[in-house]
TrEMBL record:
GO terms for molecular function: ATP binding; protein kinase activity. This is Protein kinase domain-containing protein. InterPro entries: AGP_Transferase (IPR051678), Aminoglycoside_PTrfase (IPR002575), Kinase-like_dom_sf (IPR011009), Prot_kinase_dom (IPR000719), Ser/Thr_kinase_AS (IPR008271). It comes from Ustilaginoidea virens (Rice false smut fungus). SUPFAM superfamilies: Protein kinase-like (PK-like). It holds the Pfam family APH. It comes from the Eukaryota. Residues 15-339 form the Protein kinase domain.
Length: 339
């Protein structure tokens, strides 16, 4: 365990830390503070300059200084790459303090503030036609992210996933992952070839945001998507993940929950918006998002990175039964698909 650390997130210290990066707007003031799962974000505004976001990872005494610094450096590299590639939906990177030796005593990233509000999204809101309008935008953003980061590597998808599985198995044998057994890991490994299919030998990789959800999507008053925030989980991954279903289009918490009729209709609108695209990236999205047993494949791939989903999938015997709809509801979804 790392030694206890002292942090100072008082406004005057935030102002001083930001000024060290060259931000010298007049009359700075703290305009808001927001808490996410992995970070705190301070909105800093000025009398004569645009607002900025100060993104700070939640202090954690169980994580070493070196690992914290590495996490910040990875996110900085991601944001810089996206800017260099011309991807317009990530927040603009302004600077970073990759050290604990600053006035707030913690590394942070400085970003242009994304104007707008987090998307409000549930089974009933927003209504049509806004809902399909937003789904089309989200699909376009996923497609753009794949297209601008697509690359051929030297590692196959099979090798990539097998390495992650071996690491998980080693930790289970060491007793550091409660709730998982060696059998759970071996059962998972046995299904990999079947899930990947013809993509088993693919060396095509692209960036995945890792946590696309309504709270990370910033929209204006007309529901135009202005920015996608929180790139702390972004990574270069096999196309099977990068082109897969976005997280709000499947039940992310457990293998015990089936997609609702609304989610199934949302998927149809999402993929329908890609129907006129013929690029390799779009075809990969359509293939992975409309594949047979898409729910099983999605949850299986999630289980490789998520210990919670691994436990959930093992408990249901690696069988995800998604025929949960009544006949009338199934027909309604089928009709929507054909329209």
């Amino acid at each position: 365990m790392a030694s206890q650390r002292k942090f100072n997130f008082e406004p005057q210290n935030i102002f001083a830390a930001v000024s060290q990066l060259g931000m010298f707007g007049n009359c700075p003031f703290l305009d808001g503070e927001f808490h996410g799962g992995e970070c705190r974000v301070f909105k800093l505004s000025f009398k004569d300059e645009a607002s900025v976001a100060v993104r700070v990872l939640h202090p954690n005494d169980d994580i070493s200084h070196d690992n914290t610094l590495a996490t910040v450096q990875i996110e900085v590299r991601v944001l810089k790459e996206l800017e260099a590639k011309g991807f317009p939906w990530a927040p603009r990177f302004l600077g970073a303090s990759v050290t604990f030796d600053n006035p707030v005593k913690h590394p942070f990233i400085l970003l242009a503030w994304a104007e707008g509000l987090p998307l409000s999204w549930d089974e009933n809101s927003p209504p049509q036609p806004l809902r399909d309008f937003l789904l089309g935008q989200m699909a376009s953003i996923q497609l753009s992210l794949i297209q601008c980061t697509l690359r051929n590597g030297s590692t196959t998808a099979m090798t990539y996933f097998e390495q992650r599985m071996r690491n998980r198995l080693r930790r289970v044998r060491e007793g550091t992952i409660p709730g998982l057994t060696e059998k759970d890991c071996l059962d998972q490994q046995a299904l990999l070839d079947q899930v990947l299919g013809t993509d088993r030998n693919s060396t095509v990789f692209a960036m995945d945001h890792g946590d696309i959800k309504p709270g990370n999507i910033i929209v204006d008053k007309n529901y135009n998507i202005r920015c996608v925030i929180d790139w702390g989980f972004a990574a270069l991954v096999p196309i099977a993940i990068a082109a897969g279903l976005s997280r709000f289009l499947w039940a992310t918490h457990s293998a015990n929950f089936a997609p609702s009729p609304t989610i199934l209709e949302d998927r149809q609108a999402y993929t329908r918006s890609l129907s006129s695209h013929t690029s390799p990236a779009a075809l990969s999205m359509l293939r992975w998002q409309t594949a047979k047993e898409v729910d099983f494949r999605t949850l299986y791939l999630e289980s490789i990175s998520s210990k919670g989903m691994h436990i959930s999938m093992a408990r249901v015997g690696w069988k995800v039964d998604c025929v949960f709809l009544g006949l009338d509801e199934e027909q309604r979804v089928a009709d929507a698909q054909g329209s």
